[in-house]
Design goal:
The protein has 338 residues and is α/β, with parallel strands linked by helices. The chain is built from 15 helices and 12 strands. The protein has a 6-stranded mixed β-sheet with strand order 2-1-5-6-10-9, sandwiched between helices. The protein has a two-stranded antiparallel sheet with strand order 3-4. Strands 7-8 form a two-stranded parallel ribbon.
Length: 338
């Protein structure tokens, strides 16, 4: 093989970083590869050729779909704000399905996994997408096992990555698979990136992502949990607050919320801890106490199990600081005028 042909599917309104992130990784790998390796050759293919405007206004020059014939090493499909329109373009979806059949592997970034699923390529496989759209993907494509947590998922010849910048992580993994870890690490260093990012998508998702149930007793129990996170919160006490037997409460809670009461309490404690880590200068021990963890060690174990990071690492990445100091959103919400 003289070169590795990378064909990028481009459509109007696609997100530029979904495309430019991975191809910059491939280009940098080429420049570091030397004369003995097999370089990547990137092509842009689009039904909107020759000039295709991205959602940000960046314009890419592309060839028509007919130019994408022949064997492909890597087919790359991006996401974008115009994804709904792209999904309705049956000619584009069909072309992706046919091109995948002559590709060694198929990769998607962010919402690009919807296009792969629409073409039927992910049926019976595990895949990921942006955390904000994972539930919609699982609902729309029930034959696809959607995992919202990983940065990227590799299942057979299909590699799906999560939100936007994770296409860069995925591209580094492809370089590592093609050329070994040494070149992948050198590429990551040159681009000032982590070769393997710590933690999954949940560290970026909404802090309180659980919706309150429609069933009044369960909703009341959820609200009571939120108001009493600093307390032990045994299931028997929560069930009593809902005026239900513990066994019936557990059954109805799981049906309405999709998780057990104990799991919901832990997830809610972690959500509140994330908020306090981001917006206050409280110590780790103080946060653990306010969120109802019996010990700091228990807090560390639960936080790491949920997010793949320590509380200190999470604070370092996400703490919000204003010019005057820490922004205490929790305090503002409870005591300050709007």
């Amino acid at each position: 093989m003289l070169e590795r042909r990378v064909v990028v599917v481009v459509y109007a309104g696609a997100m530029a970083l979904d495309i430019t992130g991975p191809i910059e990784v491939f280009d940098t790998a080429n420049r570091l590869l030397g004369a003995t390796g097999t370089p990547y050759r990137t092509e842009f293919i689009s039904a909107d050729a020759p000039l295709v405007r991205m959602s940000s206004g960046v314009v890419l020059e592309a060839s028509p779909l007919e130019a994408g014939q022949g064997p492909i090493d890597t087919l790359l499909v991006p996401g974008g704000w115009s994804l709904n329109e792209a999904l309705r373009d049956q000619a584009l979806v069909s072309w992706i399905g046919r091109a995948a059949a002559r590709s060694r592997r198929v990769a998607s970034v962010c919402g690009g996994s919807f296009l792969l699923a629409e073409a039927g390529l992910l049926d019976g496989r595990r895949a990921t997408t942006h955390w904000a759209y994972s539930e919609a993907m699982a609902c729309r494509y029930p034959d696809v096992t959607v995992d919202a947590e990983p940065i990227f998922v590799w299942d057979g010849p299909f590699v799906t990555s999560a939100g936007v910048s994770t296409g860069i992580d995925m591209a580094l993994a492809l370089v590592e698979a093609d050329h070994g870890s040494a070149l992948a690490l050198e590429t990551a260093r040159f681009l000032v990136l982590f070769l393997k990012r710590h933690g999954g998508q949940s560290q970026y998702s909404a802090v309180l992502d659980a919706q309150l149930a429609d069933h009044p007793p369960i909703r009341a129990a959820q609200e009571w949990i939120l108001e009493n996170l600093g307390s032990p919160l045994p299931v028997a006490e929560i069930a009593r607050r809902a005026n239900m037997s513990q066994r019936n409460f557990a059954r109805v809670f799981r049906r309405e919320v999709g998780t057990t009461p104990g799991q919901y309490v832990e997830r809610t404690r972690i959500a509140r801890a994330r908020e306090l880590l981001e917006t206050t200068d409280l110590t780790i021990g103080q946060i653990a106490g306010r969120c109802g963890f019996a010990t700091t060690e228990t807090f560390f174990r639960s936080f790491g199990r949920t997010l793949g990071l320590t509380p200190k690492e999470y604070r370092h990445r996400f703490q919000v600081i204003s010019p005057c100091g820490f922004i205490d959103r929790h305090h503002e919400r409870e005591g300050s005028p709007a």
